[in-house]
Amino acid sequence: MPDEPTAAVRYKEIMGRARRSADELREWERRRIDELESQIAEAALRVERLAEQEVAVQERAHRWWRMAQDNVERLSWIEPGEPPPPITSARGEHLDQHVEEIRTAYRELTKAVEALGWRARR
Length: 122
Description:
Helix content is 73%, strand content 0%. It is mainly α. The chain has one domain (7-120). Helix 1 (7-73) runs parallel beside helix 2. The longest helix is centred in the first third of the chain and has 67 residues, at 7-73. The chain is rod-shaped. The termini are far apart. Keywords: Coiled coil.
C-alpha cells in the first residue's frame, strides 16, 4: 500500500481544504457586506426622496384646499369646514391617480361655484 497517502499527508490535505474554505467564506462574507451596505444606502436615499415627495404632495393638496376655501367663502350659505386629514392608507404607487383625483375635484368645485352666478353669492 505504498500508493496511499500517509496520515500526515492526508491531514495536510484536509487542513489545506479547510483553510481554503474559510478564506472563500470570508471573501463571500466581505462581498455580501458590501452588497448589503450598498442596498441599505440605496434604500435610505429612496426613503429620503419619498419623504420629500410626500411633503411636496401634502403642500400641494393643502394649496388646493386653501384655493377651494377661497372659492367657497364667496358663498354666504356654505361653510368650507376643516381641511380633510391625510389618508394614511393611500399607496405611493398610486400617487399620480390620487393627485389627479384632487385636481379633478378642485376643478369641479370651481366650476360649480362659478355656475351659481351672482345671485347665490353674498
